[in-house]
Amino acid sequence: MLTPEAMIPDARKEALSEAVSQRFSCRKYQARDLEPGDWSALAYLCGKCALPGVRLIPLRCNEGLFSLPLMRVPVIRGVMTCAAVVTENDSRDALIYAGFSGELLVLELTAIHLGTCWVTGTYRKNLAEEKARPGTGCKLQGLIAVGYPDTKKSARRRKPLRSICTADPAEWAEGPRHMAELVMQAPSAMNLQPWQLALEPDRLILDAREHNPRTALDIGIALCHAELACSGTHTWHLAKSGDEPYCWAE
Question: Residue 232 above 90 pLDDT?
C-alpha cells in the first residue's frame, strides 16, 4: 500500500522543492478553459497524487462555485477548473492523507506553471458535491482551484522559522533544518501556520499546538513539504491516540 514516504521519488524532490518557493495562493485567473494538454496533465496527476482512501477529482466549474450566498463577489475570480479533495471517511488519518495528496497535486501543477489555491470553507458545498459526486459515506474536504494566473505572486506572510520549532533550528543538522524551512512555507487554513517541529535523537516530530479536524488537513499539507526534505530509508508514523503527536519520521 502506498504511504507518504513512498509517494515522491527522491529524483523528483528537488523539482518539487523549487515548486514550494514558486507556489502561491492564486485568487485571480484568466477566464478560460485549460488547454487539452493541461487538462490531461491535471487528470493524470489527480490519479498519481492520491494516497489510499483519497480521491482527487478534476472538475469543470466557474467562479460562482467559490462564493457563499451572502457574499457579493466570489473569493476566487475567473476560475474555470478545480480539483475536489474527497476522502472515504472523516478520520484524522484520512484528513492527513487528504492534505498530503492535495498539496502534492498543487506542487506538481505549480511545476508545470499552473496556478492553484486551496479552498476549504468559502465555496458552495452542495454544488461542489453535486459536481464531484463523492459517493455514499465519502466526504468532500475541500477544493483546489486550478488555472492560468491573472495576477502576480505577492509576498507571503510566514512565521519566523524559530517559532515553529521547539528548539533553535540553526543548531540542527542540514536535513532537519531544510525540512523546517519547507514546512514553514506550506499553506494552511486562514494562514494560521499551526505546525510545531521537534527534533529528538531517534525521530523528527511534526505536530501542532492544537488538535482538531481542520488542523489535521493542514498537518497533511505540511507533511508533504516535510517529505521533500527526506531521503533514504525512513518511515512516517501517524498517531494512534490523541496523546501522541500527529506524525513523526524515524
Answer: no
Provide mean pLDDT across the span 240-245. 87
- Quickly tell me which residue has 459536481 as its cell: 131
Is residue 70 helix, strand or coil? Answer: coil
Task: Supply the pLDDT for residue 198.
Answer: 96
Angstrom distance (rounded) from CA 114 to CA 154: 16
Helices and strands, counts by H and E, the chain: 7, 8
The pLDDT of residue 184 is 96
Alpha helices for the chain (secondary structure H): 4-7, 10-22, 36-48, 92-111, 125-132, 174-184, 213-227
pLDDT 10s digits, 47-66: 999 999 999 999 999 999 99
**4-147 is classed CATH 1.20.120.430:** no
A 10 A CB-CB count for 167 gives 11
Q: Which pLDDT value is given to residue 210?
A: 84
Q: Are strands 81-87 and 139-147 parallel, antiparallel or unpaired?
A: antiparallel
Superfamily of domain 161-249: putative nitroreductase (tm1586), domain 2 (3.40.109.30)
pLDDT of residue 58: 98
Q: Which of 97, 86, 74, 197 is nearest to 132 (CA)?
A: 86
| Equal CATH topology for 4-147 and 161-249 | yes
